């Protein structure tokens, strides 16, 4: 595994088994290809697709139809995320199995912490792309 936190070169200088402490507030928000969704990558392995990230959804944002290639876990810190199966609100958690497909919306905006084993695969709008 080649674990990293992009934008934190000081972490790369640490010994392999050292803990990595992040000042998350100092990490920059980076836009994704989905207008209205920005992210802060906390930890990733580009080789395997493993990713832990904060996602900030602006009110009214919609994440187009996508498939979870592996299990995805999301904890909602603020706001809510809604899809055809239900709504997950601040303080709640949802996990989706491999193969789950849905369109997600944040009618009032949201801040979520998400964990991926592999990136989502977009079906229509960004066909074949992953959220970056």
From TrEMBL:
| Gene3D superfamilies recorded | Jelly Rolls
Q: Where is the secretion signal located? A: none
Q: Where is the ChrR-like cupin domain?
A: 22-108
Q: What is this protein called?
A: ChrR-like cupin domain-containing protein
